[in-house]
Each structure stands twice: as structure tokens, then as C-alpha cells.
Specification:
15% strand, Arc Repressor Mutant, subunit A, three-stranded mixed β-sheet, alpha+beta
């Protein structure tokens, strides 16, 4: 019998990997912790710099492989428009990423509710197009940034 789903996000990631027959190695775990701690999408080289500060020299392919693993497990989303990564807020269930990204402060928020109501899937079916992944990125300004610049 598998243990109950944990409350801690890092432990959730380990639980999800274990349930899928995968391993959240110490390096993958640390990369996930770094992405999780970021308050905005974080680039691979930013992750690399943080790891290098902790561990000494780290090869870029090592970080990219860890990030690819985390994306493949649905624990992290790649934010294509800013070439960064954010921790998934609902990794326990399959879903399409829907991210709201502030152009002023760079913060990002993932919404769990599926906003498209199947429209993309309907169009893909009409085009006989096989969807591999969907990432919806909405760019604008967050509430705090709008308040900070309000007259």
C-alpha cells in the first residue's frame, strides 16, 4: 500500500515520481527546490549558478537533464516566452499549464481550472492534429504592479 499524498511540495514530487516508477534523485530534488523557491520563472543558467554556488562546478547538461526530467514528470512547466521554468501547482493530476505572467515584476501564477473548455482540443481534432502538450501563457500586469503605478 502506498503512503498518503504528502502536504509538502517537495515530498509530493518524490511521491509522484515513486508512484510512476521514477526516482527524484538528490540533484533533481535540489533543482526542483530551486525552481519551487523562485517567485517567477527561473532560467536554467540561474539554476546552474545557484547549484554551482552550493556545490562547485556543475555542468550545464546536468541541469538541463534534471529540468527535462521534472518537465516530463509534470512537476515543472517550461515558460516558453521567457525561456524559464516554474513549479507546477497541480502536479498530481494531468492538465495543461495555464500561466499568468506579470510583465512588470515577472511573477507568475498557474491556475488549475481549465480555462479553454476544450476549444483547443476541438480545433486540433478538426485539423486531425495530435496535441503533445499545451501551455497557455497570459501576459499582463499583476495587481500589485498596477497599484504601484496607479496615480
Amino acid at each position: 500500500m502506498m503512503a498518503a499524498f504528502p502536504a509538502d511540495r517537495v515530498e509530493q514530487a518524490a511521491w509522484i515520481c515513486n508512484a510512476r516508477g521514477q526516482t527524484l534523485t538528490p540533484l533533481r530534488r535540489r533543482v526542483f527546490e530551486i525552481v519551487l523557491a523562485a517567485d517567477r520563472p527561473i532560467g536554467a543558467y540561474d539554476v546552474l549558478d545557484m547549484l554551482a554556488a552550493e556545490r562547485g562546478r556543475v555542468a550545464p547538461p546536468t541541469v538541463y537533464r534534471s529540468l527535462d526530467f521534472l518537465v516530463g514528470q509534470g512537476l515543472v512547466h517550461k515558460v516558453l516566452s521567457v525561456n524559464g521554468f516554474v513549479a507546477c501547482s497541480a502536479a498530481a493530476r494531468p492538465h495543461d499549464a495555464q500561466l499568468f505572467i506579470c510583465g512588470s515584476c515577472g511573477s507568475s501564477v498557474e491556475v488549475a481550472r481549465q480555462l479553454r473548455a476544450g476549444l483547443i482540443e476541438e480545433e486540433a481534432e478538426a485539423l486531425d492534429f495530435a496535441i503533445e502538450s499545451v501551455v497557455l501563457e497570459v501576459h499582463g500586469r499583476c495587481h500589485a504592479c498596477r497599484l504601484a503605478t496607479a496615480p
